[in-house]
Amino acid sequence: MPAPDWFNYEMWLGETPYKYYTVDRVHPQTGYDRPGWLRCRQFGAGMITGWGAHHIDSAHWGMNTEYSEPTEIWGHADFPDHGLWDVHGPFKTEAIYAPNDRIVERVRMSVSGDYANGIKFYGSKGWIFVSARQRAGDQERSGGQIERRHSPGCERSGHHQVGHRPDEIHLYESKEQHGNWLECIISRKGRFSR
Question: Which own/partner contact pairs does 18-21 have at CB distance under 8 Å and 24+ positions apart?
């Protein structure tokens, strides 16, 4: 199909090899659904790297492993054998992390597109789920959400929507990722600086 008159497809391709234009490769015409280029190896490696850039680095931050690496890692994914999109489909990865000053025993991290969009930490007293999105009726909006569920026997039980408490570990806070990126370029302060 021809590229729209308002869209400079050659510039959009940049240094990548030439491929014919199709709306399914470039972007949706309506809404803000994930664009097709996320599913094309020419431009990236799919949602496994999307989660790597957002959820995995945040989980590393929370586990104090952002400057180390897992001791073991493995995974699997389904790959299409035909069609325009050639990066993975359903996937699951697993990683094992050694103890450190924040985690007292080996931790297993599981990543999959089948899980809820966020990070779920399990501990001896329950779990906490952290997400960069929050539901407002049927509309998703940015803002952040934290949910906790305590194990039976704790002084509190049930599901709680909570904010940060003064006695908890407080990590570096960024109100807006693009502005934070520019601030870090100027200040040379890393995202994970404490």
Answer: none
Could you please report the per-residue DSSP string of 111-154?
A: EETTS-SSEEEEETTEEEEEEEEEEETTEEEEEEEEEEEEPTTS
What mean pLDDT value characterizes the chain? Answer: 78
Please give the sequence-ordered ranges of beta strands (E in DSSP) within 21-168, or none if there are none.
72-77, 91-97, 107-112, 119-123, 126-136, 139-150, 158-161
Q: What is the pTM of this model?
A: 0.66
Residues facing residue 150 across a β-bridge:
126, 158
Q: Rounded to whole angstroms, how far apart are CA atoms 155 and 13?
A: 57
Please choose, from the candidates 62, 49, 191, the residue with its C-alpha nearest in 3D space to the C-alpha of residue 121.
Answer: 62
Q: Are 145 and 118 in contact (CB under 8 A)?
A: yes
Sign of torsion over alpha carbons 145, 146, 152, 155: negative
C-alpha to C-alpha distance for 112 and 47, rounded to whole angstroms: 9
